[in-house]
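FAQ: What does the model actually see?

It sees only this:
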Amino acid sequence: MDSIQGCTYYGGSGYRVYRGCGVSNQWGNIYLGFNADYQIIEGYRDQIDGVANATVTCWGFNCSAPYFEQSKNVEDEWGAAGAKLHSQVSTTTPWPASWDVWVKLNVGGDRAWATNS
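And it is asked to produce this:
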């Protein structure tokens, strides 16, 4: 299940700043995650300040090095800010197959949430 956890935060009237948030998901034997910093600014454009520490762990599969899709750092009229981390998973047992897994941080509408493939 995707999650955002482990943040430290501070804030004032109308804003909250979150640092070091873990954004992750696990699909059985595949784990994908990263850390993010973001801001919630009530009634204005929320934003992602940075992402780091992309991690993938696979047991019984081959996984590519994790990589970020180009992200939108600031919420706008078309939707939330987002940072999306991918890895390509492959196996040869019982037959050759490959697929993409991803986890995404979304920040907008004065809230943050994670989604995944």
